[in-house]
Amino acid sequence: MYAIVMVAPRFIIRRVIPVVIFLICIILLTRHLPVDKRDRTLAVSDNSALDEVKYWEERVSNDINTSSERTNFVFIKCMKCATQTVANALRRFAFTRRLNVLLPRDNNIYLGWPYLMDKVDYRPSDKKFNCLMEHAIYSRNIMKPLFPSDTKYITIIREPWSHFQSTFYYFKVHVITDMNNALDPLVEYLKQIRKYEAIYKHHNSYPYRYCIPDGFSVTKNLMSHCLGMPLGFPENRTDISHNEASVYTYLKQLDGEFGLVMIMEYFDESMVFLKKLMRWSFKDIVYEKVNVGNYSTEPYPDSIKDIHKKWSSVDYLLYDHFRKKMELKIRNGGLEFQNELRLFKKILREVNRFCKSVKQSSRLTSKLTLREFTFSGHECAFMAEDVNHLELLQKRSDAELKGKIPSHKRTC
User: Is 298 exposed, middle or buried (0-12, 13-18, 19+ CB in 10 A)?
Assistant: First the structure.
């Protein structure tokens, strides 16, 4: 009995009192939040899956002009090409227009990637989809029947060397292949590329790779693979990478099937061309950069770069082809395009400055009024990286489908 009496005060001091203090702090903090901030906290923490959806629908679906805009599009996300920044703008557009979005099943984030998409990868619909913007391998044969005939196909690619640097560190190739002690893991990898590729792609490395199946390379022609070019993965697929004529034929096919191939190095120009293609407004294409990689961008000698150029030669052909096309579009746009581009950059600066102030002050009810449109504090919050737009679309879909979808998970 005496032991119990002695233990109880210690338990209260160590366990109970800290919890009570924490709860008091939460209550006091919530009381001092602006009303809208408290509303958002309550909405997000509620158990009902639709609470957060309704919260945003009430705050970001106003002031929309839908008279002439196009709403049918397929966006192919080439991995690590600023695709998340573009996709977030597209998701916001789809959410505010309540479009019928082709989405991964359950809480998956890929549509079968890096395999060709299969019907088990996406949520069913009794009508044609309006849009797609999650990771999927492009296939005209698979996608065409799922969307209206006027659907625009869009993608974005980037300079292959910088793309290689980004994917190398994003997918932790240096960690999985145990190059942590190398002076420069990227150089070490390129000097013994087949050795380290074999380690990375081997089944023994599977537990350490995020959503990457055995035998798949994240450093070799990754953009071309995302765009559906047959490059030998999976094993039963044709590989045209060593046939330059076949590669050029496929590039010509992409040229005819895609309404726009954006270039990351011409990002704002590409966003303006997206606006023109889809007949959207400047408000629809404002963006906040998300998922930006953190790695060294120091210059490398041509002798090192050339190793990668030979290794991933198809991606260099892909990039050169569509970069030249983008530069021609910019030149042909003339003064009218340059004026539109300058206006977009000015709008972007003003919106980002306004949203930065909103973030610092939490004044979600404040508004920025421009000649072109009005932008609210709630729209700033909705544009931010911490809002999971895919999850919102999936929650809305769950409610509409009433959960009557068999679960399936091939990749992520």
Answer: exposed
